[in-house]
Design a protein that fits this description.
- The chain is of the alpha/beta class.
- It folds into 2 domains: 2-210, NAD(P)-binding Rossmann-like Domain (Rossmann fold), CATH 3.40.50.720; 211-429, Rossmann fold, CATH 3.40.50.
- Helices cover 40% and strands 14% of the residues.
- The strands form 3 sheets. An 8-stranded mixed sheet has the order 3-2-1-4-7-8-9-10, with helices on both faces. It has a 5-stranded parallel sheet with strand order 12-11-13-14-15, covered by helices on one side. A two-stranded antiparallel ribbon has the order 5-6.
- α1 crosses α3, α5 (98-110) crosses α6 and α9 (212-243) packs across α12.
- The longest helix is centred in the middle third of the chain and has 32 residues, at 212-243.
- The relative contact order is 0.09.
Length: 429
């Protein structure tokens, strides 16, 4: 079987390598020529994905993975096309389908009879059937269902542990018709391995769902539930700050009950999942007041962290404040929708002089994101911990000459290392 993976990002490339490991030839398509060049040289385009470097080298050396910028030609040679092209939201919260629409049009031009097209990008409910199916049919001149199959199967993995998550979580699949569902189930069964999961209601593996809409909704339900849960924890934290209660002790006690699962509060809610996917849900269900309130509550946390800083420090005008971490999650080099950006903006509105440090990003990379880089050891007045990088657990006052206040938005700082410095944690007394 020849598989074309369209979009060689942090999910698409590991999936391509996984397919190759099961004996299937893979053609990766990406519009970024530098990514294609690195993949063909067996060099991972992004760091931090466990096992990717070794698996990519083995697959390229064996001739099982090749990359190209010519999506049309790649699709024309393939039996299965897997689409992992991002969809984001605009300033109004509406989905921006620009990239994936372009990819779908290119796929349609190369689509051949008998092929399966499987979308993995998280989408608003109904998108696969209502938007992409007609585009594929019109652009290819083929009949949907009769001449080609279309399915939706959401990616359910985290950057940094994709291969482990592919094994751990059931692969959800829904087709535009029963034949498409069967075809997609057969494909994913052929390319994935699964861990034994006695805790699941049914054996771990490929789970068929009744249609693309059900599969799309399953992913949005997962991520939206997390967003609402995090918002609840964040609101608990704000109340705990006012009441002088340690919210982490409260959450630990609450989670001792089997029905409880409360996330810990913080300001680093970012990535493509939490800030974006609940808005996909709201786009189709604007009356979902609980979802909207949760999204708004989480979006307020960076400004709240700066409020805590101002309460402890005083007037921030002219204060040099370092934000530790631009990555949305510790150990992952990804800054998409990171809470560091609104934190920096909130500091600027207060008249502060914000600078940013992140061990995964170079100074030039930070500058390209319109951030001012900070080097450890330079004088600062205050610190805001945004990302739970392992490094930040080992840093203390001596690493930040002149520091007066530290606000820990991730509960990673060691109090013994911050002696003499006013230390505030979100949700802690």
């Amino acid at each position: 079987m020849i598989v074309c993976v369209v979009g060689l990002g942090k999910i698409g490339l590991p999936l391509a390598v996984q397919c190759a490991s099961k004996g299937h030839r893979v053609i990766g398509a990406d519009i970024d020529a530098s990514v294609v060049e690195r993949v063909n040289a067996a060099c991972e385009p992004f760091p931090g994905e466990a096992g990717l470097a070794e698996r990519l080298r083995a697959a390229v050396d064996a001739g099982m993975v090749h990359a190209t910028t010519d999506t049309v030609a790649a699709v024309g040679k393939s039996d299965v096309v897997v689409v992992v092209v991002p969809v984001v939201v605009d300033d109004s919260g509406a989905p921006d389908f620009g990239w994936i629409d372009d990819a779908t049009r290119a796929i349609a031009k190369g689509l051949r009879p008998g092929a399966l097209v499987a979308y993995e990008t998280t989408l608003p409910v109904g998108t696969t059937r209502e938007r992409f199916l007609p585009m594929l049919a019109e652009g290819s001149g083929l009949r949907a269902g009769a001449d080609f199959s279309v399915a939706y199967s959401p990616e359910r993995v985290f950057s940094g542990r994709v291969f482990a998550d592919l094994r751990r979580y059931p692969k959800l699949v829904g087709g535009v018709d029963e034949a498409s569902t069967r075809r997609a189930v057969a494909f994913y069964t052929a390319v994935l391995d699964f861990d034994e999961r006695p805790d699941l209601a049914r054996p771990n593996g490929v789970w068929d769902l009744p249609g693309t809409e059900a599969a799309e909704f399953a992913k949005l339900a997962e991520t939206t539930y997390r967003d609402v849960n995090i918002a609840l924890a964040n609101q608990f934290a704000r109340f705990a700050d006012a009441a002088g209660v340690d919210i982490y002790r409260v959450i630990e006690a609450a989670n001792s009950q089997p029905f409880s699962h409360i996330h810990t509060p913080g300001i680093a809610v970012g990535g493509h999942c939490i800030p974006v996917y609940p808005r996909f849900y709201l786009w189709r269900d604007p009356s979902a007041t609980v979802v909207r309130a949760a999204r708004d509550a989480n979006a307020e946390m960076p400004a709240y962290a700066v409020d805590l800083l101002a309460a402890a420090y005083g007037d921030l005008t002219g204060a040099r404040v370092v934000v530790l971490g631009v990555a949305y999650r510790g150990g992952v080099k990804e800054a998409a929708f990171s809470g560091a950006f609104p934190t920096v903006e909130a500091l600027r509105r207060r008249g502060a002089d914000p600078v940013v440090h992140d061990p995964l990003f170079t100074s030039d990379e930070l500058r390209r994101m319109a951030l001012v880089p900070y080097l450890l050891g330079e004088p600062v007045d205050a610190v805001v911990v945004h990302t739970d990088h392992a490094l930040y657990r080992r840093l203390g006052a001596r690493d930040f000459p002149g520091v007066r206040v530290v606000v820990d938005g991730r509960r990673v700082t060691d109090p013994d290392l911050w002696a003499g410095v006013t230390r505030r944690m979100i949700g802690a007394p």
